[in-house]
Amino acid sequence: MSDAPMSRPGETAGWPKLVVKYTTDEANIAPLLPPGLQALDPTVTVGVYCIPVLNEPEFGISVKIAASWNGVEGQYNLGMGIDQEAAVHISGELNGQPKFLCDIDFFRLGDTVGARATHQGYTFVEYSGSVASEGDLVAGDFTEHEWWTKYSRAIGGAAKEYDFAPVVVDVATTFEQKHIENLDGDLLLRDSPWDPVARYLPVNEVVSAQLVTHQAKARVITNAGPLDPDAFWPHADVIGGSRWPGDRGGPRA
């Protein structure tokens, strides 16, 4: 990849990413992880972004929890709400990326930063804050691992039967950080049956909130290995394209 800037001045795609990290109770993490993925710590990362996908700006939000796979530290992605339909099905069908349609409001006006995510009529995440200081950059390139799951249950819905048994997908992305700004503000999680972040991962303490500008140098998506299909079965029914526990594709009662 070239050293050209991610976007030219005035472009929407390529904005800094809003990254908010908070802690939740440790007991909340393990039940959301498929057996085989190991919890690392009770850190939840909420990211709000606008990046170019399919030649148009994609606004999105992700919710990730710290987890390792075969001793490699990374983050398990529970869901990515995005505002363009074209990328939803193809992302899941090819690579298991947990995308679903979502309305995203995300802006910076001077030193004021705001973000909001709404799905099925429920606003489930809000952030409002302001720039407080410049943050410290990580020196040199670094690689982050994100875990997705890919699988397909058997036609007809027979219990514990798959057309494609579950595997872990390793998304290894190498970044160079360009600029970081620390924020002071408030993260608000609202209860939603369709995006139950507040229900499953309530906030104990906000650890950090930042605007992060980075350049992706490389991205490699690979099949990282199989999950136990019987142990995975309780995790197979999810809400829409996310990885939140579901009931026939909708919220659990």
CATH superfamily of the domain at 17-136 and 179-213: Acetoacetate decarboxylase-like
Number of strands: 13
Secondary-structure arrangement, i.e. CATH architecture of the domain at 17-136 and 179-213 = Beta Barrel
Work out the helicity level: under 10%
Written description of the protein model:
The termini are far apart. Helices cover 7% and strands 57% of the residues. Mean pLDDT is 94; it is low at 1-6. The protein has a domain at 17-136 and 179-213: Acetoacetate decarboxylase-like, CATH 2.40.400. The strands form 2 sheets. A 7-stranded mixed β-barrel has the order 1-2-3-4-9-10-11. The protein contains 3 helices and 13 strands; from the N terminus they run ββββαββββββαβαββ. The longest helix has 10 residues, at 86-95. It is globular, with a radius of gyration of 18 Å.
Throw out a few tags for this protein.
two-stranded antiparallel ribbon; mainly beta; 253 residues
